[in-house]
Specification:
The protein is an all-alpha fold and 339 residues long. Helix content is 65%, strand content 0%. The protein has 12 helices and no strands. The N and C termini lie far apart (65 Å). The relative contact order is 0.10.
């Protein structure tokens, strides 16, 4: 309850402003002319009044933040004067962008991944392993992947940079589809996934980072970008239906796709060693993501990407074997962080 004195103060403020100017901003301006307890009382009434509501209270907070920023160093104006762009979203939601730095204290410039998501690739993995198809589903998966290789060879020839770009737009789909379907299954059945949701989404993210890297190298043309739309649209829906019908078939297909990826990157390395493709400096994003040395080259990038594909090959063939044994993926711990 407000006292009679407080009511008098507020009425005096309203009388000065008029009913048409009875808004949060105007009341705040008029309240600035008051002193002592009267000013504190009017401020309290404005923020707690049902007429103002939570929205106006939030707006006042927003304005206070702007005034505070303008008072400290000039805010964005000073940054603009120094030739810098201040890209900071001011919000009353309280979400602030984290200040991330490298181990040496320098600024971390990538928002798509963080330092704790980077790693040194395991180059010691066996690249020659191959799952020999024996069952009907295995043979179907094997020859399906082999048939997809022919048009790719015809279209890209030996342009391995663009070939890698196309390969990664496809390779990043299975992990996302599998992780999404396992996520929905876990929700329907009220059960854990054994870590497989995270493992498959981790695979999809890793493949996407391969694409972000080769985008810096290949510079695809407009018709190659259009081809990505077509291939991804067809493959996503086909793989989605295949995973619904038979997860063991879907994972086996992915395992064979990864085997083909290993072969493609091996041919890429041969062309780099022969000098047919210039061994340029590695993109900055690759150096930070795989913790490569500062003087790393494109060959170093292809080496670590090929190792990643070999790990994805193992994970997907393993997942298919789990299903072949009559088990579900949740029955076997997922190889999280295997690559």
């Amino acid at each position: 309850m407000m006292s009679r004195g407080a009511t008098t103060v507020v009425r005096s403020v309203v009388g000065q402003m008029g009913p048409r100017l009875f808004s949060t901003g105007a009341m705040k301006t008029s309240a600035a002319g008051l002193v002592g307890s009267e000013k504190a009382l009017v401020t309290w009434w404005i923020t707690s009044s049902p007429m103002s509501g939570a929205r106006n209270a939030s707006t006042m907070t927003f304005g206070d933040k702007q005034q505070k920023e303008e008072a400290v160093g000039g805010g964005a104006t000073t940054a603009a004067a120094n030739g810098q762009k201040a890209k900071e979203v001011v919000s009353y939601w309280g979400v602030q962008p984290p200040k991330v730095t490298k181990e040496d204290g320098s600024e971390w410039k990538w928002n798509s991944f963080r330092p704790w998501e980077t790693y040194h690739a395991d180059l010691s993995i066996d690249l020659q392993k191959h799952h020999a198809p024996t069952t009907f589903l295995d043979k179907f998966a094997f020859w399906t992947v082999k048939s997809l290789r022919f048009p790719t060879d015809v279209f890209f020839q030996r342009r391995y940079g663009c070939r890698a770009m196309m390969l990664e737009t496809v390779a990043a789909v299975p992990g996302m589809v599998g992780g999404m379907l396992l996520h929905c299954k876990s929700l329907r059945r009220f059960e854990h996934s054994g870590g497989w949701i995270k493992a498959l989404l981790e695979e999809a993210e890793n493949e996407r980072m391969h694409l972000m890297t080769f985008m810096e190298v290949s510079k695809p043309k407009w018709y190659e970008r259009a081809l990505v739309f077509t291939v991804q649209g067809i493959f996503f829906n086909a793989y989605f239906l295949a995973y619904l019908a038979s997860p063991k078939l879907a994972h086996r297909i992915t395992g064979y796709l990864e085997e083909e990826a290993i072969h493609s990157y091996t041919e890429f390395l041969k062309e780099l060693d022969k000098g047919t493709i210039e061994n340029v400096k590695a993109p900055a994003i690759a150096i930070d993501y795989w913790r490569l040395p500062a003087d790393a080259t494109l060959r170093d990038v292809v080496m670590v990407v090929r190792a990643d594909e070999a790990h994805h090959r193992d994970v997907n063939h393993f997942a298919s074997d789990v299903h072949y044994q009559g088990l579900e993926l949740k029955d076997s711990p997922a190889p999280i962080g295997y690559h």
